[in-house]
Amino acid sequence: MNHFGLPHIGMSTPWGRAQHIKRIAKGIFSVSTPSHGGIKLSRERNGKVPDYMREPGGWYEEDCDWCIPFLVFTADILAERDEYALKNIAEGAPIRTLRNWRPEAFEKFFGTELAPGESYIKDERAKNGGRLPWESDAGLAAAGK
Fold first, then answer.
1. CA 73 to CA 94: how far, in whole Å?
2. What is the pLDDT of residue 145?
3. CA angle 89, 94, 95 (to 5 degrees)
4. Which residues contact 38 (CB under 8 A, 6 or more apart)?
5. pLDDT tens digit sequence for 77-92
6. pTM given for the model
7. Are 33 and 40 contacting, i.e. CB atoms less than 8 angstroms apart?
């Protein structure tokens, strides 16, 4: 897979072949496939993402990770005046998504500690002995946890 070339229709992505590509800002692209998608960052952009949030290859999944480039590059995205991006940022969607799905990254990025009830994932871990209900013992062992 070409990790850092310019995205193009038909290219291989982590979710299949790219069907639609939209430039959000310089080096920031929305990429979709018939079944899924996400945000693709150029090598230069990805290198500016804090290491604790950086995804190898610059791919950020559309459900939980898209918020990372939106938060790191908010000013550049806003400057492009894309209606969809403006609406998401104005409604606080990137902040909510990071807080709920990547609470450790949220806390480090914003220099705060989330209280109970402020993050779905953090609350689920608290209720389930430090892990998520869908994590198996075998999966945790394989991940070294």
1. 11
2. 52
3. 105
4. 13, 14, 15, 30, 31, 59, 60, 61, 62, 65, 66
5. 999 998 989 999 999 9
6. 0.86
7. no
